[in-house]
Design goal:
The protein has about 260 residues and is of the alpha/beta class. The protein has one domain: Class I glutamine amidotransferase (GATase) domain (Rossmann fold). About 20% of the residues lie in helices and about 30% in strands. It contains 4 helices and 16 strands. The strands form 5 sheets. An 8-stranded mixed β-sheet has the order 2-1-3-4-14-13-10-7, with helices on both faces. It has a two-stranded antiparallel sheet with strand order 5-9. Strands 6-8 form a two-stranded antiparallel sheet. The radius of gyration is 19 Å and the shape is globular.
Length: about 260
C-alpha cells in the first residue's frame, strides 16, 4: 500500500490555514464543472469558487476541477472525452465517483490509463454486505473530521500500482474467481476492495471514489456534506487552472478591441 506523500499532507494543512485567514480571496477565480449527478454538490462548496453544470462558454482547461459523478463515459460531452488528457497535463483536478454508470459499468475502459483503480469487469457495480469503509491515510486532508458509514454497494475494482489508496471496503462479502467465460464471478476468497484512491495524471490529480457519493449523501450520511467540501477544497487548491479573462460589458454592449 502506498502512503500519501508529506507534501500532499502539507498542502492540506496550508489549504485549511489559507481559507481560514483569507476566506474572501480563496478560490476567487476558480470554476468547478459538475457532470452527471450534481444534486449533492452545494453551489458554495468552496469559498469563492463557482460550480457550473455545463461547459457553456468555457473551455475544459478553464475549470480547476471536473467532477464525473455516476455518469457514463459515452454520456460526456465530446469536448470532455477528447480533452481529459490535455486537461490533466495542464494540472487540472479530476474527481470520479462511483455508481451503476461509472467505471466498468459506465464504459470508462476508454480512459483506463488515467484512473486511480484498475477496472476488472465490464459490469462492476455490485451489491455487497454492509461493511465499514476503512481509512488507510488518516492524515489525508479529505478525511478531516469525517466518519464513514457502512456501504452496501460499490464498483468492484482493483487497486492500481502507483496510486495512493486512501480507504477500502472492509471485505468479507465479495470473492474473486474466474467464470467459464474468463470473466470474474462472485465466490471464492474474500478480499478488501479499494473505495477511495488518488493518483497523478500528467501535472494533474485524479481522485476516484468507488461508491455512489450522491446516493450516500442524500440517504443521510451525517458527514457526507463535509466530505464533499473537503474533496473539492483539496482539489481546487491543487489545480492552477482558472478561467481566461473576458471582456466586460459596457452599456449593454460587449467591448471589442
Amino acid at each position: 500500500m502506498l502512503r500519501i506523500s508529506p507534501i500532499r499532507v502539507l498542502v492540506g494543512v496550508l489549504v485549511g490555514l489559507y481559507l481560514s485567514l483569507h476566506p474572501a480571496a480563496a478560490g476567487a477565480a476558480k470554476l468547478i464543472l459538475a457532470l452527471g449527478d450534481d444534486s449533492y454538490i452545494p453551489s458554495d462548496a468552496v469559498q469563492g469558487a463557482e460550480v457550473k453544470k455545463e461547459l457553456g462558454e468555457y473551455e475544459l482547461v478553464e475549470f480547476a476541477v471536473v467532477i464525473l459523478s455516476n455518469v457514463s463515459y459515452g454520456g460526456l460531452p465530446a469536448a470532455v472525452q477528447e480533452g481529459l488528457s490535455e486537461y490533466l497535463g495542464r494540472g487540472g483536478s479530476l474527481l470520479i465517483t462511483g455508481g451503476p454508470n461509472a467505471y466498468g459499468s459506465g464504459g470508462y475502459q476508454a480512459v483506463a490509463s488515467i484512473l486511480p483503480f484498475e477496472i476488472r469487469a465490464e459490469q462492476d457495480w455490485r451489491a455487497a454486505p454492509f461493511k465499514p469503509v476503512i481509512p488507510l491515510q488518516p492524515g489525508h486532508p479529505i478525511l478531516e473530521g469525517v466518519t464513514f458509514r457502512t456501504v452496501g454497494a460499490f464498483n468492484d475494482l482493483n487497486p492500481k500500482s502507483g496510486a495512493v489508496e486512501i480507504a477500502q471496503y472492509a471485505g468479507g462479502g465479495l470473492g474473486r474467481g474466474i467464470g467459464g467465460g474468463g470473466g470474474p464471478i462472485l465466490g471464492g476468497g474474500t478480499y478488501q476492495s479499494p473505495m477511495i484512491a488518488e493518483r497523478r495524471g500528467g501535472k494533474g490529480t485524479v481522485l476516484g471514489i468507488a461508491f455512489d457519493l450522491g446516493q450516500e449523501v442524500r440517504s443521510g450520511w451525517a458527514d457526507g456534506s463535509r466530505f464533499v467540501r473537503n474533496l473539492l477544497t483539496y482539489l481546487v487548491a491543487l489545480s492552477p487552472l482558472e478561467p481566461k479573462p473576458r471582456e466586460k460589458e459596457q452599456g449593454g454592449d460587449e467591448r471589442r478591441k
